[in-house]
Each structure stands twice: as structure tokens, then as C-alpha cells.
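The following record pairs a protein chain with its ligand, D-galacturonic acid.
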Amino acid sequence: MGDGVAFASMGDRIALDGAVALPQQNGRSTTLSLSGCEKPVPVIGMGTMSYPPVDIETTKAAILEAMRAGYRHFDTAFAYGSEKPLGEAIAEALRVGLIQSRDELFITTKLWSSFADPAQVVPACRMSLQNLQLEYVDMYLIHQPVRLTEMISRTPVAAEIIRPLDVKGVWEGMEECKNLGLTKGIGVSNFSCKKMEELLSIAKIPPALNQVEMNPVWQQKQLREFCKARGVHITAYSPLGANNTKWGDNRIVESDVLADIAKAKGKTTAQVALRWAYEQGVSIVTKSFNKQRMRENLQIFDWALSTNDLEKINQLLQRKGVTLASILGPHDLFLELDAEV
Ligand SMILES: NC(=O)C1=CN([C@@H]2O[C@H](COP(=O)(O)OP(=O)(O)OC[C@H]3O[C@@H](n4cnc5c(N)ncnc54)[C@H](OP(=O)(O)O)[C@@H]3O)[C@@H](O)[C@H]2O)C=CC1
Ligand SMILES: O=C[C@H](O)[C@@H](O)[C@@H](O)[C@H](O)C(=O)O
């Protein structure tokens, strides 16, 4: 097995939510096919949101290192400021022959809440494509189920700029992005069952996926059941609990239960958390800009958790970590949305 190249050995026994396992796609990483998206998604994606924030060169260098390690799936957002360095990294990867074609990559970006207005969706998508130096992305997501009437440069946001999301109008814009070929697939992020219900009742093109916080200490059982029944795939973000970030904590990396399982298997606690997510049938976006840890995080495909391990993980105390209120401020609408599952 090459450096950082991950192969599936258990893909066929895993119950997949809205997806089918395709082991060894391009000989690189296990992929899942999504309904409503032409290209399969590599199970493990590299997150590009850093805390504390880092400069463009650091992000670009980390992305190139991730490509060398075998990553082909990258998660960005207009709000992260990482679209430009990702675009530069892709251009350089092509120039130096690290990848042969842009088609080898699965690129996700997100519509920021300040553009979550029907008339602004297509222009915002075009702006992201310009940042990325790409003609299309593979997945375009509504970042959050809220509308902000102004661009923000700091948080907490001012109460006067917060509005409920016009789900129908904004989703029509997302559908137009897909119809125009600006993106291969469309989906959402941070949508509860209630918001999904509202969206599914009006969507002409159903969302391919919902990207949400998911990890052993916030397992999202109800939302996953809901989405599975409707063929909507889940992508897990903050699968390691976003340790050492403003929006996360150390409940996973410091979990004794996960550490004991890891020790018995000769794995790390992070690998146990990632393997657990994989065994739930979801794709995963996790961030590491560290050369060793980004490789460690790919090594989850040639071993499995036992029924006993899974039972112990099932019993972990559950608490949502990432909330709109903690990121954008404790306003009523955010608190209401955070309370939905
Ligand atoms: N749609 C949304 O609203 C959201 C989307 N996301 C996306 O998901 C991505 C990942 O989520 P994120 O919140 O960053 O959280 P993660 O759970 O991926 O945790 C990232 C943190 O864990 C550290 N880390 C990475 N690998 C290991 C390891 N093997 N052992 C110990 N520590 C490790 C990283 O540090 P280091 O780099 O030093 O290794 C970083 O501090 C984001 O980058 C973003 O793309 C995240 C939040 C919200
Ligand atoms: O200013 C707000 C931020 O961009 C925030 O909403 C996002 O960064 C979110 O936490 C994410 O990581 O996707």
C-alpha cells in the first residue's frame, strides 16, 4: 500500500445512508456514490477551515501535502477564505503533475449566509468558481439555514441583519446552479429534520447531501434515520470534535472510552472516531494541516470496530458541540434552530 493510499476491505458490509460503496476508485480512496450527483465522493475529505486562521500560503501548502498523501476530496466555503488557496493548489498540482486532471478531485464549496437570497445564489456560485479557478464544483451547499442581510467581518453578528432563510427561493437558485453546470450536485449543511422536511416538500432537484456535525459524542441518530429514509446522504464535519478550535472541544481526543478501544487495536483515538463515522455509512470531512496527522486520518479502511466497541461508543454521553449561537451569537433565531434535531 502506498503512502497514505487507502483501500476498502469492509465497504460491502457497511449499511450506507443514501450511498453505495465503490472500493478502490482510482486506486486511491474508498468512494461513495450519491444520488443526484454524477461523481462518487471519496469517503475522507480534507477540511480547509483553520483555527486560529492561517495565511493563504500555509493553506495552499497543506492542501498540496494532502494531495501527496492521497486526498482527492476537499471541503471549502466562501466564508473560510480558503477557496483561493485551494484554487491555487489545484492549479499547481496540475502544473507539476501531482494530478493529471481536475476531474480526479471532488470539490465542495458553500453558499455563505450573506448571499442566501434568491437573486444572489448564482452570482455567489460564480464568484466561488472564480476564487477556485474552476469551471464547476462537485458539490455546492447552502452553508446554514439562515439569511444575513449584510456581509460580516466579525462575530457576534448584529441582530438587525438576521432573517429566516427563504428555503424555496434560495433552493431554486441552487437548482439553477446545477442546471447551468456550475456544480455537479447540490445540497445543504446544518439542516435539521424540520428544515429538511421543508426543503424536500418544494425541491424539484432533491438535495444530494446534508453536511452536519457528527462524531461519537454527537451521533445524529435521528437526523441520519430521517435522511436515510429519503435517500439523502450525510457528510460528517468535525468528526474529531474540532479539538483546539473556537467552535469545538476535546471531548473526543480526550475520551477514555475511545482511547481504550484505540489502544487495544493499536490505533489512535482519532482513527477510532473516523472509523466509527465510516462504519455509519457517511462521508467525512476532517481537517489536519499536519503532515503526519493528515496521513494518520486516512488509515481507517483496513480494520474494523467490534460489536463490543460499537456498543461502548453508543453509550457515550451525547451533546451538540457546534452551534449557530456559539459561532454567530446567541440570537433567538439561532437558538431556535440549534434546538432542532
Ligand atoms: N458546514 C459547516 O458548517 C462546517 C464545516 N466544517 C468543515 O469540516 C472540516 C473539519 O471539521 P473541523 O471543525 O475542522 O474539525 P475536526 O474534527 O476535523 O478537527 C480538526 C482539529 O483536529 C486536529 N486533528 C486533526 N487530525 C488529528 C489527529 N489525528 N489527532 C489529533 N488531532 C487531530 C486538527 O489539528 P491539526 O491541523 O494541527 O492536525 C484540528 O485542530 C472543516 O475544516 C470544514 O471544512 C467544519 C465546521 C462546520
Ligand atoms: O463567520 C462564521 C464562520 O464562517 C462560520 O459560520 C463557519 O466557519 C462555520 O463554523 C464552518 O466552519 O463552516
